[in-house]
Design goal:
This protein has 113 residues and is α+β, with helices and mostly antiparallel strands. 59% of the residues lie in helices and 12% in strands. Strand 2 and strand 3 form a beta hairpin.
Amino acid sequence: MTDIASAIKALKDDAEFVVSGEPSNQAEYEANVKYVTGADSNGTAIFGDQLFTWSQVSAKKAELQTAYDNNEYQRKRASEYPSIADQLDDIYHNGIDGWKSTIKATKDKYPKS
């Protein structure tokens, strides 16, 4: 799952900002996302203009969500693969072909989309 903060970081990794809630439209974005441009002598954040438009941020969020969704099979596989120690033990006792058949069962259960 992806969010506005992830989208902003993907657009500019070193962006400093504050997000209140999870904006779902331009008005909420403009009201709830503040970009930090510096700090005053007390260390209090100084906020400046929006670095990105709602269109840019929402498009990046959609792109990240699509990439996340497209890799669901990888996340499911990862949780079902045997531990590395068990896989090495499988190779030792059953050879590479035995190990491949063990791994193939998980790959077949969660095919690449």
